[in-house]
Amino acid sequence: MSANWYLVWGVVLLLGNLAGLAGTLFGLPGNWLIVLLSALFAWLVHGAAGEGLTWWSVGGLVLLAVLGEVLEFAIAAAGAAKQGASRRAMVLSMLAGMAGALLGSAGGNLLIPVVGTIPGAILGGAAGAFVGALAGESWKGSTQERGIAVGTAAFVGRLLGTFAKLTIAVALFAIATLDTFWN
Q: Most buried by CB count within 10 Å: which residue of 79, 91, 109, 131?
């Protein structure tokens, strides 16, 4: 493959991985999109002299993506579980957190065009986690105080879990980009 075509496909990978990075903000499997696109690139696109994204890097991306999932789930669930959250509250918290991230990004973009999308998604996801956990506890018949405690723990857990997963997403993006263009 010529160097020009390699560069074109490298830019396509970079843009796709940026979409994966953005997807992670919204609670979507963006880290796995980065892994998938990077694996496809390593398989289908080869540098003229063997340079480019290596299978060792792709393996590292897989391990980091798994770590990101484990951290997000463990951190988000730990606080709510510590408060004695019901399974119903945890499931509703997760679902409402994804919906809140999508709604928050739209609302944040309306308030502050372009830049508002990111804080809107993060805060919307955390607010959704709070509402979902509170609704789950209320549905179960728990007291309002218990529901608020579980909801608050879900809110904080979602923020911390999102931060951990975003940190992993940035690392995935950086590794794929560096190995693609500077190998």
A: 79
